[in-house]
Amino acid sequence: MILEIKDLVAGYKSGPNILHQVNFQLHANEIVTIIGPNGAGKSTVLKSIFGITNLRDGKIIHGSRDITGLGTDQIINSGIAMVMQGNNVFPDLTVEENLDMGAFTRKNRGEIKKKKKEIFKFFPVLKKYRKKRAAVLSGGERQMLALGMALMLSPEVLMLDEPSIGLAPKVMQEVFDKILEIREQGTAILMVEQNAARALEISDRGYVLELEKNALEGPAKDLLKNPRVGELYLGKKK
């Protein structure tokens, strides 16, 4: 197991708890998707792992290491990266400068250069616009750039918060295709996604959050067939 969340209770600042004893597991080379209604705490799970909420109880284990309560910089250095929802690139910087920002904890310029070369091969559109400001990119291109920035540190775990939000169907498909390729290269992925059906189709397992707690979990193919999940979250009718 590469990541485990045990009985997690978390919230923001002095506000109420958003998560109530939530449990998740992520194994190596898996894609796991979290679905549920708005306000269920899906994004808060990712933010809690990434060190940007107040953890009030429970544990977060990465590999054999307890990372509960660590700062975001320490969590990044441990091998976990996250692509936030929206506003996830620096619009006034060039594509290449954004990738450099993604590698901010790397000191070896040779390693950074090598990694950028890999990213440009993986995302050809970024190579095409490498000297352009990120502000001129389309929504899909920005999302590719955000993914590229997260991959600059070669994370073991990549967390994605609504990676397809605001994208046209064709561009959404391109993003999901890239997510599959990232997994194939050896990165485990934990994802929150509004397009629950498409996300589960490319996932190994899924979790359903309701009322800030675990409601259902299991193989993604089983959740896709579950009548209750289908009616509430996949747009299927009885």
Describe the largest sheet.
Answer: 6 strands, mixed
Mean pLDDT, rounded to whole units? 93
The tally of domains stands at 1
Number of helices: 10
Structure write-up:
The structure is a single chain. The chain has 238 residues and is of the alpha/beta class. 38% of the residues lie in helices and 26% in strands. The chain has 10 helices and 10 strands. The chain has a 6-stranded mixed sheet with strand order 6-7-8-3-9-10, with helices on both faces. It is globular and about 45 Å long. The model has no long low-confidence stretch (mean pLDDT 93).
Short structural summary:
With 238 residues, this protein is of the alpha/beta class. The protein has helices spanning 42-49, 72-78, 95-102, 109-122, 124-128, 139-151, 169-184, 196-201, 220-225, 227-233, and strands at residues 3-11, 17-26, 31-35, 54-62, 65-66, 80-83, 157-161, 188-192, 205-210, 213-219.
